[in-house]
Design goal:
Blueprint: H1 4-16, H2 20-32, H3 34-37, H4 41-65, H5 68-95, H6 105-113, H7 117-125, H8 133-162, H9 169-196
């Protein structure tokens, strides 16, 4: 995609929809607040940057030659999301006491690194390696990501404040764990379906 407006619109649409990383951003905003959650945004940027670069430069050519790699990568992502959901659920018990260690910079980085959205960014939205538009689109991508990540963190914080008693940090973390479990099942089942097809 070389048109800057179409690129920005596609990036915005994909980053704004709920997904594993956005779930963690909202849960962090709910549990530790907006300002303390800002530290995890660079982890999202780094995760997407590395994932997209790897997919464009290495994985794309390898997957063309070895289609089983695509299925294996989906299974790995599914297993990681399932493990992350379990850890997030267990960490929900301490969220209400302000001791919340489940949503770390590393967790956000790895979740983003394995996020299936990176495949769409790499193979549908970003131009191929060597295209001069790529260097211009990277800063636009990072800027949109910072803005949207901040909105997800703010949404989590707002939800925790406006529905106190109902939407406690512990319940939001549990809801985030359920959402991540659903993503894990969807990704894992698509990988299994690809194997059986």
């Amino acid at each position: 995609m070389t048109d800057p407006f179409a690129f920005a619109l596609a990036v915005f649409a994909l980053l704004a929809v709920p997904g594993p990383t956005n779930t963690l951003l909202a849960a962090s905003g709910a549990s530790v607040g907006f300002r303390r959650s800002l530290r995890i945004i660079p982890a999202e940027i780094g995760g997407y940057a590395i994932a997209i670069a790897f997919l464009l430069a290495v994985f794309g050519p390898l997957a063309s030659a070895h289609p089983a790699l695509t299925v294996a990568s989906r299974l790995v992502a599914s297993l990681y999301l399932a493990w992350s959901a379990l850890t997030l659920w267990r960490g929900a018990a301490t969220a209400g006491r302000g001791v919340h260690g489940a949503i770390t910079v590393r967790r956000v980085f790895v979740t983003t690194l394995l996020n299936p959205k990176a495949l769409l960014f790499a193979f549908v939205i970003f131009p191929p390696p060597g295209d001069p538009h790529l260097a211009l689109q990277a800063p636009l991508f990072a800027g949109l990501m910072i803005g949207i990540a901040s909105c997800w963190i703010g949404f989590g914080r707002l939800l925790a404040r406006s529905a106190s008693g109902i939407a406690t940090p512990a319940r939001i973390s549990q809801g985030a764990a359920v959402a991540m479990s659903i993503f894990a099942v969807l990704i894992g089942s698509s990988a299994i379906a690809a194997v059986l097809a």
